[in-house]
Amino acid sequence: xxxxxxxxxxxxxxxxxxxxxxxxxxxxxxxxxxxxxxxxxxxxxxxxxxxxxxxxxxxxxxxxxxxxxxxxxxxxxxxxxxxxxxxxxxxxxxxxxxxxxxxxxxxxxxxxxxxxxxxxxxxxxxxxxxxxxxxxxxxxxxxxxxxxxxxxxxxxxxxxxxxxx
Amino acid sequence: xxxxxxxxxxxxxxxxxxxxxxxxxxxxxxxxxxxxxxxxxxxxxxxxxxxxxxxxxxxxxxxxxxxxxxxxxxxxxxxxxxxxxxxxxxxxxxxxxxxxxxxxxxxxxxxxxxxxxxxxxxxxxxxxxxxxxxxxxxxxxxxxxxxxxxxxxxxxxxxxxxxxx
DNA sequence: TGCAAAACTGTTATGTTATAACAGGATTGT
DNA sequence: ACAATCCTGTTATAACATAACAGTTTTGCA
Lengths: 165, 165
Ligand SMILES: [Zn+2]
Ligand SMILES: [Zn+2]
Ligand SMILES: [Zn+2]
Ligand SMILES: [Zn+2]
Fold this sequence. Notes:
2 copies of one chain form a homodimer. With 165 residues, chain A is α+β, with helices and mostly antiparallel strands. Chain A has one domain: Winged helix-like DNA-binding domain superfamily/Winged helix DNA-binding domain (Arc Repressor Mutant, subunit A). Helix content of chain A is 43%, strand content 19%. Chain A contains 6 helices and 5 strands. The first copy, chain A, has helices spanning 17-35, 41-52, 59-68, 75-87, 129-141, 158-161, and strands at 91-94, 99-102, 112-117, 123-127, 145-156. In chain A, strands 4-3-5 form a 3-stranded mixed β-sheet. A two-stranded antiparallel ribbon of chain A has the order 1-2. In chain A, helix 1 packs antiparallel against helix 2 (41-52), helix 2 packs across helix 4 (75-87) and helix 3 crosses helix 4. The longest helix of chain A has 19 residues, at 17-35. The relative contact order of chain A is 0.15. Chain A binds chain B through residues 11, 95-96, 113, 115, 117-118, 124, 126, 128, 130-131, 134-135, 138-139, 142-158, 161, and chain B through 11, 95-96, 113, 115, 117-118, 124, 126, 128, 130-131, 134-135, 138-139, 142-158, 161. The complex binds zinc ion (ZN) (4 copies). Residues 92, 103-105, 110, 112, 125 of chain A line the site of one zinc ion. Chain A binds a DNA duplex (30 and 30 nucleotides) through residues 38, 40, 42, 58-60, 72, 74-77, 79-80, 84, 98.
């Protein structure tokens, strides 16, 4: 039986996001078990907070929420949790926002490509194997060996365009 | 007669980089004159410093150099200059490095795509009309209107790969 | 079970990047 | 000359991120 997939839901109107969150956490639990790494309470809670937000969260926003809940709330706590979650492919860092968002396909090998709405702040993840191909060809022509990709497109999402049309 | 083009020279070994800098500054002067905007001394000097560096410069690195030269050296000085230069398309900000680099084709309409070497720190600008096309198609399928693109590929440049081969 | 190594967390301090807000000066067009 | 605009100086602070070291928990193995 295939893994339940969490779709990138940033621009989808009607859906039960609680379910997205539960699925994401369940997938994370399973992946960490498979990989023999530990999804500790702080790490799990950080992942949950990231998923609960409808826009990418800054480290200090996460930190503030952790503090309200009695967790330790010094910066290293949250940066360490985020580092772990990134290593496991459970969250992506969005460089142009200095913020973090849940990965919509943590059990698949991919790069995170994002459409980021400047109006509502939501970030939609594209799973971009085709893009990857085109980018790598350009790079190869220069003799460059690509190891990591940052692809972030900023603009207006379908909802935020609508009023203007 | 066409505009003299400044090539992206980050990964090219043998060239007279002083000439690159002079050309970049001359092009900037001309563009600003055409556009009736002012390439003031600080702005010009910031652009020159950015071009002089073989790797993208952080704002505070620029600031330090300005300070040594008797310019005012509080952060807003350099951030304002950089903002102007970005608006005029004379420099690009590299989000994944929090750093700035001179644009290699300021008189052409384009997005800055970068190959960034994690070893030597150099950043090579690709003028990526073809990429742009592929990216926009993906976005269009989602109903997303792209306004700005951040495309930064990190890895090893031709020179830094060589010793490993 | 007992122990050592490894992994994780707590804590303090500091480094780095970026902007807000307001005052003053230079430039431009009329 | 004057007003509007643009540019710069200055102080303060916000936002983002890591270093370094101490202590605890977990894990694997004798
Ligand atoms: Zn992802
Ligand atoms: Zn939107
Ligand atoms: Zn450019
Ligand atoms: Zn290199």
